Amino acid sequence: MPAIATGANAANRDLIYIGVSGDGDSLSIGLGHLCHAIRRNLRMVYLIENNGVYGLTKGQFSAAADIGSTAKRGEANLLAPIDPIALGLTLGATFLARGFSGDKTQLVPILKAAIAHRGLALVDVISPCVTFNDHEGSTKSYLYTRQHELKATEADFVPLADEITAVIPPTGTTTVTMHSGDTVQFRRVPDGYDPTDRERVVEYLLERQGQGEVVTGLLYVDESVRDMHELNETSKTPLVNLPYEDLCPGSDELAKLLKRFR
Amino acid sequence: MQQLVAARVNDCAIKLANVNGTGSASANSLLMESIFKMGIPVSGKNLFPSNIQGLPTWYEIRANKSGYTARAIDYDLMVAMNAQTYEADIQEVRSGGYVMFDSTWPLDEVLLRPDISLLGIPFAAMCNENFAGARQRILLKNIAYTGALVAVLNIDFELVGDLLTEKFAGKEKLRTANQVALRLGYDYAREHFACPLPFHLEKMAAAADRILIDGNTAAALGCVFAGATVAAWYPITPATSVMDAFKRFCERYRRDPVTGENKYLIVQAEDELASIGMVIGASWSGARAFTSTAGPGISLMNELLGLAYYAEIPAVVFDIQRTGPSTGMPTRTQQGDILECAYASHGDTKHILLFPANPTECFEFAVTAFDLAEHFQTPVMVLSDLDIGMNDWVVPELKWDDSYRPDRGRVLTVEELEQIETFYRYVGEGDEHIAPRTLPGVHPKGAFFTRGSGHNALGAYTETPDEYQEVVDRLVLKHEAAAHHIPSPIVERRAGATIGVITVGSCDLAVREALDLMAHPSAGEPAIVTDFMRIRGFPFGQEVRAFLDEHEVCFVVEQNRDGQLRSLLILETLTPKSKLRSVRAYGGFPLSASQVTDDIREQLGR
Ligand SMILES: Cc1ncc(C[n+]2csc(CCOP(=O)(O)OP(=O)(O)O)c2C)c(N)n1
Ligand SMILES: [Mg+2]
Predict the structure, then answer these.
(1) Is the pTM of this model over 0.90?
(2) pLDDT tens digit string along A31-86?
(3) Of A157, A212, B260, B420, which has the fewest Cβ atoms less than 10 A away?
(4) Pairing state of beta strands B289-293 and B230-233?
(5) C-alpha distance across the termini of chain A, in Å
(6) Mind listing the domains of chain A with CATH numbers?
(7) Which ipTM value was assigned to this complex?
(8) What CATH number matches the domain at B213-396, 3.30.70.20, 3.40.50.970, 3.40.50.300, 3.20.20.80?
(9) Closest-CA residue of chain B to A252
(10) How far is the CA of A57 from the centre of ligand 1 (A)?
C-alpha cells in the first residue's frame, strides 16, 4: 500500500493521500514498505487498524500481539510485539498517534491533524476484532483497552480558517502549528508530556507500556522535516499536470546530445 | 611450424584477457572507440565477472567491414594479460593467430603452440621504469598494451592520442603519463615486430552517421523523450545503468533553469515489490512511470504485475535479462525471462512484451512501451539483455520526430465526465475492448474503487461467476487487440527457401551472419538457404503466424536452456510442435554465428 501511495503522490502532490491497512499487512508482509515510507516522509495518512490478529485469515497472531496475549482458542503469543509507534520513533517518523476505535472524540481531531501534517502521519488505531480478538486474555480487546488506556494528550484541531472563532483553549496546553497554518492544541493529560520532545516521548512510552498501559493520543509530532517532494525539489505543479512539451527535449537537443556519442 | 594468415583489412577479432579491477576496462573501450572513429563497423563485448577485483575478465573486439559484428569466437589476436588464464586464452587463438603478452616474465613453455606467433612486450618492466606508484603502474600497463595494439593493428595513433587528451582534460599529469605509456607500447611494437600484422585496420567512411551507445543509455533516453516523470527502481546488475542514465538526462533536461525545480522524481525503492508498486501508483495517477530491473526483480514484482493487469493500470518495466535461475550469473547475458514475463503473476495473466535487439530499438521501444501501456492500460515489459544493455553498439544516429505526441489512452476528461450520468470503470469499448479510465482528483464523478479483488464490469466487488468472467474474458480480447500495435517482426525472405529461422532480441546479428554463412558456405559445404524472422513483441500478430504457416520447418534461435520463445510460439499459435526446432545457446556469453550454423547443420545432417 505505501509503495503505491508513494507513486501516486510522486505523480500528483496536490491530492490528499489516506492509506488504511491492517496490523498484519503493516507489521509483517508490508513492514519494509511502511519503514521506508516513514523514512521518505511521504505526505500521507497511514492508518493501521490494529486488532492484534490476522482477521481475514481467521485469527492467527499478528506481529502486534503482545507476549502472553491469548488467541481465541487459548494459546498464548510467545513472540515480542512490534509497536508501530516505537518503530516510528526510531525511524524518524514525524507524526505518530494512537487512537482507539471506541473513542471517536479523541480520534477525529487526530485524523484531522494527520491530514494537515507535512509528511507521513502514522495513526495506530486499536480496533478490537469482535470475531477473533475480543475475548478475555487478549490485550487488544475492547475491555482491555478501556481498562488500560492512558491518554497522553487530548488534541483539538483548529483549522486555519476557524482560528478566530475557536474556543479559547484551557490552560496547560501546547500548540503546534502545522505546515498548512492549521494548529493542533494539546491538553497535556499527564503532567509535563511534550509531544515534540522525542527523547522524552520514547522514555515515557517505554515506561508506560512496561506497565501494560495503552498510551493514546497524538504522541509525537515534528513539522520541521521536509517531505518527499521537498527533499526532491519536485516542481510545485504536480508532475501529472506538466504538459508533454515541457518534458520532451526535442530533436535538436537529441542531435546535440548525440554528438558526444559520435 | 608457423602458419601465416592471409592479409585482411578491416576484418579481425581480438580478445583481451585481463584481471578484474586493474583498470583495463577503460583502455579496452578506448581501443573500441578508436576503431569506431576510424569508421569501421565494430563491436565490443565485455565479458566480466560478478566481482569487484581479482577474477578474470575479458573484452572482445570485432571489427568487420561488412558489418558482421556479432561475437566472434575464433580470435586473430589474444592480448593475454592475465597469467591465471594464459592456458585457456592461448588455446582460443585461431591457428595462425597471435598472442601478445607481458614478456617481463618468461612464458611457460608448455603453453606454447607451434601454430601461433608470440608478441612479447615487457609491459611491467616498461611501466616500472617509467612510472612511480604501484596503482599507476598497473593502470598504465593497460595504456601501454593499447599503444602496442595501435601499432600492430594500424589504428590511427593521433586519434587515440586525441581521445586520451579529451578524457584527461584538466588533469595534465594524468594526461601526460597516459600519452607516455601509449608511446612506450607503440614504439616497442614498431621496433620489434613487422607492423602492421597481416590482418589490420584502415580508415573507412562506412559509419559516418553512426553513434556508439549502449542499450541502457538509449532506453533511458527513450524514457525522457516519451515524457516519463516518475521512475522507481532497486539496484541490480545489469539494469542499474538505465536509471543512472535516466538521472543524468533528467538533471540535464528536466531541471527548471530558473526555479531549480525538478520535473521528475526518481525513487530508489527498498525492493522491487515497492518499485513496481510506485510505478503502478504513479501510472494510476496519470504519470508516465517506469522501473528497470532484471529477472530476480521480475520474480518479486509478480504479485503487483497481476494487480496492474487486473485493475488495468499502465506500467512500464525494463527487464535487462541476465543469466538465471536464482542469482545465476549476474554479469552474464541470457534471454531467460521470456516465459516469466509473458505470464507474470498468479491466475490468468498475459502481458505485452517488447523485444529490442539493439540500442536503437531500446530507444524506440521505450516510447512504444509507454504508448502501449497507456493505450491498453496494462503492464508492458521491455525485454532487453545484458549484451544489449551494457555493451557499446555502433548504431545509426537516433532520430526523433517532433510531431510525436504520447498516446494517453482512453482517459475521460472533465467535460466527458460531466456529460455522463454515472461512470463505470470496467465497461469495454469497440473492437479493442478498452474500458475508459479516470484519473484521481479530476472530477468527483470519475471516482471509483480500484480493486485487485473480484470485480464486475461496473467496478463493483463480485464473487459471481458470470460477472467475474465477463471482465477477465474482456482482458483476453484486449490483449489480442494489442497484437495490431506491437512492432511487426523483421522478415527477410530468400528465393527458394523452405526453412525459416526465427529469432529474438540480441541474437539478431549472429543469426543474420549465420544465415549468410549457410547460404554462401566455404568450399565443400552445401548451401542452406533460409528465410529470417526476428520477433519484436508479444502478443504475436498476423505476420508471425503467416511466417510459421509458410515454412515446413522453422528453427527458433534463442539464448535460454528451455527454448522459451519456441514454447511461447507453440502456446500462442496453432503451429504444430514438431515444426519448430530449437537452437539454444545459454552459457552466458553473447551468441556467435558459428554456434548457430553448427547447430542447424547438425540438425539437418548437412
Ligand atoms: C501475498 C499474500 N499472502 C497472504 C494473503 C492472505 N491474507 C489476506 S489478509 C491477511 C492478514 C491480514 O491481517 P491484517 O492486516 O491484520 O488485517 P485484518 O484482517 O486483521 O484486518 C493475509 C495473510 C494475501 N492476501 N496475500
Ligand atoms: Mg489485523
Answers:
(1) yes
(2) 999 999 999 999 999 999 999 999 999 889 999 999 999 988 889 999 999 999 99
(3) B260
(4) parallel
(5) 45
(6) 2-154+189-259 (3.40.50), 162-188 (no CATH)
(7) 0.94
(8) 3.40.50.970
(9) B400
(10) 6
